[in-house]
Amino acid sequence: MDEKLQQFFSSLDRSRFVDEPYKALSSLDHPLPIGYGQTISQPSLVAYMTEQLELNKKHTVLEIGTGSGYQSAFLAEFSGEVYTVERINELSKKAKKRLDSLGYKNIHYRVGDGTLGWPEHAPFDRIMVTAAPSKIPEALLDQLAPEGIMIIPVGPEGWQELLKVIKDRHGSVSERKLLDVTFVTLVDK
Ligand code: SAH
């Protein structure tokens, strides 16, 4: 892992992103419940996904599935602007409160259907999806900029492949499988 990422990973206290009684378990490298049937991934996977996104400070990033806001903190730390979409209002509100208290001013929050992306702020240099669809939503592919990278788990409930999707400068898309993973389902209306 890159040194700056490693440093940030060690410094970010995950207990700030979960409620009792899970705070005591937050230092374990294990997924944890965040309410509403949703979970926060194990920290090592969050760090790995962040690394695979190859971020820099010039990037505008779309995140689908704000959840607790833990992954959003990584994105905000290593990119320019973060646009994060969450369907559950209460989770979005709580995440905003936590991330505001940590001082992040480059995160923009929206409550809504992430399968539609956030067209008003497209295109995005990077897209991070932290809930799994059965196939990559068309809107997200459309909203990925040329030379963009998207990290997304794709597959049926309970078992998915984590994909790295790359759009070249001419707009052609290719994908590579990174890992087998388990994420909550990306709700599709
Ligand atoms: N990255 C988060 C974990 C996200 S869990 C973290 O670090 O805590 C996946 C999240 O995706 C859940 O909060 C769930 O409510 C949200 N989600 C599921 N389907 C969605 C959709 N269609 N649009 C937006 N958010 C969605």
TrEMBL record:
GO terms for biological process: methylation; protein repair. GO terms for cellular component: cytoplasm. It is found in: Cytoplasm. GO terms for molecular function: protein-L-isoaspartate (D-aspartate) O-methyltransferase activity. Keywords: Cytoplasm, Methyltransferase, S-adenosyl-L-methionine, Transferase. Its EC number is 2.1.1.77. CDD domains: AdoMet_MTases. Belongs to the methyltransferase superfamily. L-isoaspartyl/D-aspartyl protein methyltransferase family. This is Protein-L-isoaspartate O-methyltransferase.
